[in-house]
């Protein structure tokens, strides 16, 4: 095959599917395979991935296992949370935001090794293929991306297992049959979709939830925490400073315990179909509520309303895979500009599935008790100003009403 | 006073403050006062308002007590919920949406009676004055609006009580002192603000909540309900058809019981200051979740994303008092257009403060299991199409990356 | 070929390229071909298309030649002009808006004839393929669309000519060689692109312009016309009522004469590349200016600003081929709502390339000389209101400035 | 008057009206007046303003005459042009953009002198009062702004003249009567409005235009110029580097000569009324066209479309006086981010009222002849990709059409 890639960097989890891909790349293209396995906080040991890669014939210098948790939270999750980004009103974009980081590493490793292609294990029906590939192309326009699921003829579980057996790929016992649903996980969230969840009318069974206690089983007593923010990013819990990934991990633990951050959702994929997913974003859900809480007192109305109006587009860009695009960077510049004073502390109540802001304070607060008070405000605000304010705001409405009446009469 | 109004229609609750206004209008302007008292579902008897008005010398034919609950939900609340409107990310606009209805009635009654002015009891610091007045001017450009709180010198509780005593206005015992906070209520929500709540750092005490059980005291067992929708509006609960107001009242009861719809919020008022409010929107919170749930399967992605991007502006217009404005009507036309197929049923789980969609189904569903399935899709979707889709979406990003590299190299 | 279409409706111009497509469909698929030739006002005789179709073996009952000019202007051009739609700041969308109409007819004829496919002559690099196909699929999800340019191997002029000669397709003398550029025309505009125009640095030669006099050759004396509008649509010129297509044709003649509506433009195609086009939109350019002129006095500020903010998205949807999409229809509903009072007359000056509004009047005018006058306004407007208006608009800015100063000092 | 200001910084033009204000401040408040006269490129000598201020008793150290032309263009005009900002589709914001600069100087001088107030000569009906005051309050929340036109009783020309005579203010002969219209000018534009122009149906007489040759009188031969851009800002004409103000002045001369940049416009003022203005923006009109021309080849589609959708809001903010607001700064951050590669050269044709881009080139160009060519593209673009691209874009439309047909059938 004359146009076969020579060296391919594969996003490798160590699981059965990407092991099959690894072997398929070797056999289909006769190419050298380099593996990249990221610790995104998915909660799995990565050393087995190394051993499995070696077993499949990957040279040690071609195996890259990288802890990207801090980078993930600092450079991807936190910037996104500055925007209060939710897709279609509810989804916190936990899968979407991890993909550009993975592509960034794949491309970097490809450049280091002089590889001519990268490969991923996303199917041809989903969003992840788009996110992986748009990011890769945006970072290296000459790179080639191989998506085996769109190319090969291993179109059933049986064929995959046969291929694995034929190539001596170890198969864990529970992987022989179909998984009841498919899972993606990282420090921000766990998503589950497919198969058992494909009927959007049927409630997801409890066993789908892997990361959060059921609200019914959560503690009967609320717990309170205080999250500190600096320029829009969370920096402490209960006064204790933490690195981004440490902080998100701690919030995940609070969220897990109190059953916070579950979402049963039907969304619109970029590729044109609707799909149903079960998401668990325990720490992220707390973080979103807290960020909104601190913005309430530190962000100006004009800035806040502009942010709110930009957010759906920003979230859509991330969902669709355009993290590395000029328009996402433009929106980020605007959002980051707004966060210069989003500094302070939020107090939250965690209880049986909910994280609720119950207090917020800041040296950067714009809240003025002097202005808002029902008591005597000592001249901070002249109520008579409101009369002029309203009259000028009403002027065009009056002119409209008069015009409409005039026209009606003339008809 | 030569430019004094002759006849004034007053938005009259029957409470102490609007009774003082009533009397003040009579004494200050020597004008005839007509009262309008609306049953918006605030949960108070209205006959006492009639008796009190009569006691204050209002002629029976000048007393208007109207049950506007169905009108309120059908013509104001439901159209707004079609938009999934939330102000500043969280507030369901329960006070804002009632004001234009009240003004509409004030203006209509004014025209019936040949009155030259309307009057309301909102203060000069809040949003309600703006909402009342913009609506009134938009409906009758020649109307005059009197806002006694911006005019009179009754600037302390003591002076108000003195005025009431001087004019034989009955004062309930618990009204002599300052109320600990101020309350507004209707079928959609109850808001509490001011005084005891003015410190946004301090958690609101439990006694502020008047309409919802505390989540901690809510039942330990979840309850499930099914809400039916037709063209974007809720029409049934558990298969039982209900009128708009009946349905919302029923949802309020579910929400009350399960502690759903509490919000502790600092918001940006249109008049330029931040204020803190405690909102309870039990039925509305359930309704919003359910409406999102039914849209998930019946609304197209393009329509949904457009709606999401228009929503913040729509919500801002309602918050700021521009219900009767051409731009709100334009947005409504767009939103209503999107709801033609938002028909079907949502199943929700209610539990200790949360209403969660757990299932949805519809004859109008756009969800296609045939397309999304992980199983063999019998040719519904050709995964190879995704390659072209991605490559063309990536083309501009590649051209950008190549350009940027070229420029960097040349520098 | 088992999955070959049986009957195909071809968008047929009668020119060499679509004649080759016609024959190719017959020979490649052995299918029955039905032709659709539209009079969109492109300024060519259509009877030759009929004769040529017959010559190529199309049965008379399979030849559809339809004058769609009124439909085109009334149902596509005018609704679009209500939005003042321009793509990327300057392009009036003359090609884009014709494509959905053609697809609509193709699909309708396919349904009449029981055809299983439609075909078009757009290439695989442009926007038109997208517009044709999205429209067709939106109107008939089961239809098949054949795009020969993406399928066949006639990839050079030489091969096309060979194919034509082999199949006795008549070739006009001037069609043997490469055309210096490619042209599309309809009642709204003429576009020229490709080959001789591919260097965006080089000024387009005068011979490219086919539909407008050069401004330098236009009359040395300005001409004035008055365009009447009713609900956002032009209905008369100089007081003479005209049908939509008649009116646009008349404006085209004015524009042609005065050299109005030329545009040399580099645009972003939906498929990801930039291309350079020369557009001539003589009547449309006058119409856009006039529509803006009448909106100036009849459209409210709130409505107008909302329209302005929606326009780029609306124009993008049309450019990208999403005329028949829910989101375009939502925007249209909003836009149409705004046009209810856009009724009146605009006076324009036409001179050497420019159409300029110089006067406008309307019974629906919102312009109030009483309010705006520098003279005594007899109390229409109280300048003191402006003080309150400004102070409340300034309040948040003051609170911000005070906060920022406070924080700076503390640092 | 106990709350009278002690020291006031007045925006002083040297003309009759601001001289009256100067004297009125002295007599009404007994305060010390400091004058600020800016050379904004309005084309008037400023030394007479100094002499007149001295004549009116201003101490030399209290007279500030500052050439702000470079600052005006560099820090205000150019940033705004990066956004292609036009208000309500057509107005280039020439007056709006000068006001924040003036307020910035007033506030700075007030702080230097320890003044407690600033004053301006804008009336209570217009936008300028809002722009002056919002800017001042945003820069110094403690400043007081005095707007004599909203306060005094000099409500007719006669009274003004009497006041001037009484206080020995020199009155130029042509200032005794009413001016036929009111004029504002700076390096970017000249606006004329009021009185003779108040009928929007009547064409503005030629004598209103002060800054541009009539297109009819402009040269019969086109002239070509080349404007160089660097990161979104114009930096050279015909290869000659120029400072911002020098460049704009040169463009003004080109525009004047060729009759470019006239606009007869009815706009919506922020204070709620419509007004008619005649604007002349000769250099700015050329600059806008040129900036669009260079963006055509250097700006990515995603960035460009986002910019287009943000522009109306950005322009509205500037028009309404919110230059110094967080939301304008957020938008500016996004816009500036987009301009990093907007570098290159545009060739324009100037002829009888029009400035037209006829060529553009850049080392930063994204235009790829290899991709767009009608000729063989050597594999740069695979036309088959378009099929998948279209099919996935169409998927949701097909699902919609199928759903709608299904529902129709069921009805």
TrEMBL record, chains A, B, C, D:
Pathway: Amino-acid biosynthesis; L-arginine biosynthesis; L-arginine from L-ornithine and carbamoyl phosphate: step 2/3
One Gene Ontology cellular component annotation held by this UniProt entry: cytoplasm
Record EC number: 6.3.4.5
Main location group: cytoplasm
Classification via InterPro entries: Arginosuc_syn_C (IPR048268), Arginosuc_syn_N (IPR048267), Arginosuc_synth (IPR001518), Arginosuc_synth_CS (IPR018223), Arginosuc_synth_type_1_subfam (IPR023434), AS_cat/multimer_dom_body (IPR024074), Rossmann-like_a/b/a_fold (IPR014729)
EC class name: ligase
Catalytic reactions on record: L-citrulline + L-aspartate + ATP = 2-(N(omega)-L-arginino)succinate + AMP + diphosphate + H(+)
Chain positions recorded as L-aspartate binding sites: 123, 127-128
Similarity field: Belongs to the argininosuccinate synthase family. Type 1 subfamily.
Subunit structure: Homotetramer.
Protein name as it appears in the record: Argininosuccinate synthase
Organism: Paracoccus jeotgali
Lineage: Bacteria, Pseudomonadati, Pseudomonadota, Alphaproteobacteria, Rhodobacterales
Name of the gene this protein is made from: argG
